[in-house]
């Protein structure tokens, strides 16, 4: 699969729109919509109300195209949606011209608007939702300009800015002209050019910034771009864009040599480089001991501070080697690791992978049981039990420069840098479901049965009858969490999945190497690989209290829509 484009909203530190600094105030009123998540020309889009929108995702979201299905991952490393799902999001429709100003990097040429900015991701569901009343105004515009996406884009922009569509079209034309001008200025006037952006409020204007002689510099260009005369406002700043980039590179080299974690960006409007750090005391102490000063126009912004002292009692176990980063990561790799946490040769490993832990995690010997605590004192890992975490693999040659104490040369990997969302993977004390482990050779199946709160659902979720194949066979993906796969029409070539939570009197067993689900009368209702129809309620996303609780308490691999099974209406029975 080609690399997938995931447009991510720029955070407030580097946004080119003033309203971005307050956190997506560009969206004055949330428009909540449901639509199908599709992949088109390597872009993720939302099909809604007859129009295909390019999605602008929150800053911490990412995509993973490494598996059979493209998935969307949230800030905690959890899979929240897959291509083909119906998703529910809150945000707003914006023109592609606005979108270009709030995303990291460039809007890919092949990913056309109109765009939908996601301010709140509310959940996903592999099944088509029941019809909901859409925003009347956007539905009206979508219908009116169904065959003319460019005019629809302009109509959306006109709605945003309170102008008529003719003025919106005029501004679009000016913005298209301005793009090449900005590129020319950056290339030809590097000695004085400090930046270039478009402002839409309180009035429409194009801003060109120089360190000196800006008015004189711009004059010959306006002969080539006469339509922009009177639209461009020239301002002065102290440092050129090229000098800021050079300062960013110098700062980056210095901090890398000192082994410090950091992220950075250029804030053009503030005319500065911003370095984001996660331990100010260590950061400044390291600079002082190395007698290093950051270049001019580089500003340090602290985004995380480690604990100064542990606010709860722990019983450390010095026999457990616990490699930790010197400094908390400013951003995380977002792959997923799930498996049994094991102590092997005094190192903590999951599926044979040695974990490199973030700061503010602690080893605790609880009466002989080794536990991992987070900074609030919560148990997020326990030796011999399942653990779930985000993160990603790193090569050995990078490990020792990042951690507090080096690993011995003969310490074998692979090595996993812990990311977000670390927790116990198997919850045996949920109020919503009971969890059993069904042994199969060296492996286990997860089997979940509902408790009274799920039996008494009233108006939560959507009543459905789902027909699909039970998938529990072990393959290279180790499907611990049996699910129902629902195949759509061949031309769409799409498979959706849901994880069943069975009635309380059901049980599961492995017979002849095959998982069987047995009802309260002792009858086999479905086996691995067989088709079955289940009646119940489906609960997707995290936008209700129960949905959010299931999301946090179910095994991490069971990320599909949850199906609260009432009965089997078709199967072996």
Q: Would you give an account of this structure?
A:
This protein has 573 residues and is α+β, with helices and mostly antiparallel strands. It folds into five domains: 7-162, no CATH class; 167-236, 2-Layer Sandwich (GMP Synthetase, Chain A, domain 3); 241-302; 335-424, OB fold (Dihydrolipoamide Acetyltransferase, E2P) (Beta Barrel), CATH 2.40.50; 445-570, OB fold (Dihydrolipoamide Acetyltransferase, E2P). The chain is 19% helix and 36% strand. It is built from ten helices and 34 strands. The chain has a five-stranded mixed beta barrel with strand order 2-3-4-9-8. A five-stranded mixed β-barrel has the order 16-17-18-23-22. A hairpin with a 7-residue loop joins β28 (483-487) and β29 (495-501). α3 crosses α4 (165-188). It is flat and about 85 Å long. It starts with 6 loop residues before the first strand and ends with a strand. Mean pLDDT is 82; it is low at 8-25, 130-135 and 489-493.
Assembly status:
single chain
Inertia-based shape: flat
Question: Using DSSP, what is the number of strands?
Answer: 34
Overall number of domains: 5
Helix content: 10-25%
Radius of gyration over C-alpha positions, nearest whole angstrom: 27 Å
Biggest beta-sheet profile: 5 strands, mixed, barrel
Count of DSSP H/I helices = 10
Mean pLDDT: 82
Strand order of the largest sheet: 2-3-4-9-8
Low-confidence stretches: 8-25, 130-135, 489-493
Span of the ends, CA to CA: 41 Å
- What structural category characterises the helix and strand content? alpha+beta
What fraction of residues sit in β-strands? Answer: 35-45%
């Amino acid at each position: 699969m080609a690399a997938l484009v995931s447009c991510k909203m720029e955070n407030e530190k580097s946004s080119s729109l003033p309203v971005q600094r307050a956190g997506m105030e560009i969206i004055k009123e949330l428009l909540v919509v449901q639509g199908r998540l599709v992949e088109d020309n390597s872009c993720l889009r939302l099909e809604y109300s007859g129009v295909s929108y390019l999605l602008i995702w929150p800053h911490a979201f990412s995509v993973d195209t490494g598996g059979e299905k493209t998935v969307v991952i949230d800030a905690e490393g959890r899979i929240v949606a897959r291509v083909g799902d119906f998703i529910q999001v809150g945000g707003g429709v914006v023109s592609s011209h606005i979108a270009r100003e709030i995303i990291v990097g460039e809007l890919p040429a092949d990913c056309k608007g109109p765009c939908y900015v996601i301010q709140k991701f509310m959940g996903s569901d592999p099944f088509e939702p029941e019809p909901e009343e859409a925003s009347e105004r956007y539905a009206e515009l979508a219908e009116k300009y169904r065959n003319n996406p460019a005019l629809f884009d302009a109509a959306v922009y006109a709605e945003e800015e309170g102008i008529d569509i003719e003025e919106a079209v005029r501004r679009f034309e000016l913005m298209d002209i301005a793009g090449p001008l900005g590129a020319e200025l950056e290339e030809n006037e590097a000695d004085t050019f400090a930046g270039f952006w478009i402002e839409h409020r309180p009035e429409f204007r194009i801003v060109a910034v120089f360190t000196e002689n800006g008015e004189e510099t711009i004059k010959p260009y306006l002969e080539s771009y006469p339509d922009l005369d009177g639209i461009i406002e020239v301002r002065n700043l102290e440092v050129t864009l090229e000098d800021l980039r050079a300062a960013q590179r110098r700062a980056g080299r210095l901090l890398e040599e000192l082994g410090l974690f950091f992220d950075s960006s250029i804030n053009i409007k503030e005319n500065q480089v911003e370095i984001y750090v996660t331990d100010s005391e260590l950061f400044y102490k390291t600079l002082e001991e190395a007698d290093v000063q950051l270049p001019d126009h580089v500003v340090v912004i602290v985004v995380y501070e480690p604990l100064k002292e542990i606010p709860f009692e722990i019983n450390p176990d010095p026999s457990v080697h616990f490699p930790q980063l010197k400094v908390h990561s400013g951003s995380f790799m977002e792959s997923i690791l799930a498996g049994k946490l094991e102590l092997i040769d005094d190192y903590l490993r999951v599926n044979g992978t040695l974990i490199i832990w973030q700061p503010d995690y602690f080893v605790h010997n609880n009466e002989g049981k080794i536990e991992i605590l987070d900074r609030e004192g919560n148990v997020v890992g326990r030796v011999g039990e399942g653990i779930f975490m985000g993160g990603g693999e790193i090569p050995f040659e990078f490990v020792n420069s990042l951690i507090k104490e080096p690993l011995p040369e003969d310490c074998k990997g692979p090595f996993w840098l812990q990311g977000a969302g670390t927790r116990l993977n198997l919850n045996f004390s949920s109020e919503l479901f009971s969890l059993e482990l069904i042994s199969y050779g060296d492996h286990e199946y997860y089997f979940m049965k509902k408790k009274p709160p799920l039996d008494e659902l009233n108006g939560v979720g959507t009543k459905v009858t789902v027909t699909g194949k039970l998938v529990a066979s072990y393959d290279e993906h180790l499907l611990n969490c049996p699910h129902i796969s629902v195949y759509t029409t061949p031309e769409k070539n799409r498979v959706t999945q849901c994880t069943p939570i069975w009635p309380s009197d059901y049980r599961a067993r492995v017979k002849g190497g095959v998982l069987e689900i047995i009802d309260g009368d002792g009858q086999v209702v479905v086996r691995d690989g067989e088709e079955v129809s289940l009646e119940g309620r489906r609960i997707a996303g995290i936008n209700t209290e129960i949905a959010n609780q299931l999301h946090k308490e179910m095994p991490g691999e069971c990320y599909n829509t949850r199906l609260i099974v009432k009965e089997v209406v078709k199967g072996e029975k």
